[in-house]
């Protein structure tokens, strides 16, 4: 397998030295207002070295706003933010060189040829090499890893959407970032390109010791890609855990519905089997129309999104938070 650098995979090395797990992003009480509209109302989150974290939330939840603040592109209204040990509002060029950024849509550079463009971007990073991390990445090797070798001589404007997206990624990682921000990375990619992209992200994490924070409104993508999912809704993080943890928490709350003597009943419980046994002990054969439903993470999430889009964001977020805690 082609890698961006030679030698021992960086993640294994970091694991050996105990460097994995240190916080690279710390956010406490982050608030953001656009005029009188409060978009972020006290976001707390942590991203640790070596993690792939997905910031998941419905359209307009404030995902882009959050990562733009972390990238130093946008000034926050309030709160504490530290990215690679620095407040992004005061980040200098050396700090910036340690970050990789892939924006939602990149419409510039249409007339550049792929190889020239990646090479050109890479040169900016040359003064910022560090021990164990020579910058930039080798352009040809990077193009190969991203499946762009055969398109290296083409103009960006002549590429397909998926190929362009890969160029965006090349520009985001040519500086061999310690921390990579990806905003909706697979929007517009077909399933094959999406799968390739997921592989690429895992390879970056394993071989380059890159920590990744990505935004998506696709739960499936978050489940496939991320070690940890943060759900942003109503201006706050309402859930934080691995896909398995979130699923387990959701499944704890099952709905038991039944009728006794024609009267309908509904009960939410973490132990449906015990509840059903108790029902039969008390009512015996009078129990009818028994139904036990375990909502999936997706159902609960989509329900929250529907509420959010119908304007009941605050309530939906609170309910969702309650449901999975
Ligand atoms: N520059 C701005 N001025 C005023 N309002 C803004 C600005 N940028 C974003 N907003 C508003 O802030 C809210 C959050 O936007 P943001 O783009 O951060 O959400 P998002 O979760 O990334 O959404 P999407 O999934 O659609 O990309 C939206 O209601 C948006 O209209």
From TrEMBL:
Lineage: Bacteria, Bacillati, Actinomycetota, Actinomycetes, Streptosporangiales
Membrane topology field: Peripheral membrane protein
Species this protein is from: Nocardiopsis algeriensis
SUPFAM superfamilies given in the database record: P-loop containing nucleoside triphosphate hydrolases
Transmembrane segments: none
Keyword Transmembrane helix: no
Domain of life per record: Bacteria
GO BP, one annotated term: response to antibiotic
One Pfam family per UniProt: ABC_tran
Protein name: ABC-2 type transport system ATP-binding protein
